[in-house]
């Protein structure tokens, strides 16, 4: 019995660590998207079963201190197509995670980096600890500045431009 328990724990640990470097999911058109890290976590390879093409995203913002990288899917722009994010703990004290969000472009069938709006008066200067609110169709980003925590709330306007709400 103890051997079965140890085997189960080993398999679970392997599955969790493996899920950090590769994900796959279905798009609305039922095509399968597979995302893998490559080149020591500095590149993302994205394969689409419908187009049979591989999209390469180079120079992703990896942790300089070697903190673990993660991939996660969600509909970040609320258009019905799954998008994905790459994130890792900040390289300081590790109190929040830094996100790079990639939005699916249904015309090109590629993913594009969601750029952080520079002139937005946001409290955070990047996407951190991102939370998706499907009901309000907002993204929140929370960061720490000194001894205070700040939260920015973002929404996409009718032109699909990301704007700061709060």
What is the strand and helix layout of this fold?
Blueprint: H1 2-19, E1 22-26, E2 32-38, E3 43-48, E4 54-58, E5 69-74, E6 83-89, E7 97-105, E8 110-113, E9 131-133, E10 138-145, E11 148-156, E12 162-164
Antiparallel strand pairs: 1-2, 2-3, 3-4, 5-6, 6-7, 7-8, 9-10, 10-11, 11-12
Structure description:
With 166 residues, the protein is mostly beta strands. The protein has one domain: Beta Barrel (Lipocalin), CATH 2.40.128. It is 11% helix and 43% strand. It has one helix spanning 2-19, and strands spanning 22-26, 32-38, 43-48, 54-58, 69-74, 83-89, 97-105, 110-113, 131-133, 138-145, 148-156, 162-164. The strands form three sheets. It has a four-stranded antiparallel β-sheet with strand order 1-2-3-4, with no helix packed on it. Strand 6 (83-89) and strand 7 (97-105) form a beta hairpin.
The count of strands amounts to: 12
| CATH architectural arrangement | Beta Barrel
Q: How many domains is the backbone divided into?
A: 1
In spatial order, strands of the major sheet run 1-2-3-4
Number of helical regions: 1
- Structural class, from helix and strand content? mainly beta
Protein name: XAC2610-related protein
Keywords: Signal
InterPro entries: XAC2610_dom (IPR058087)
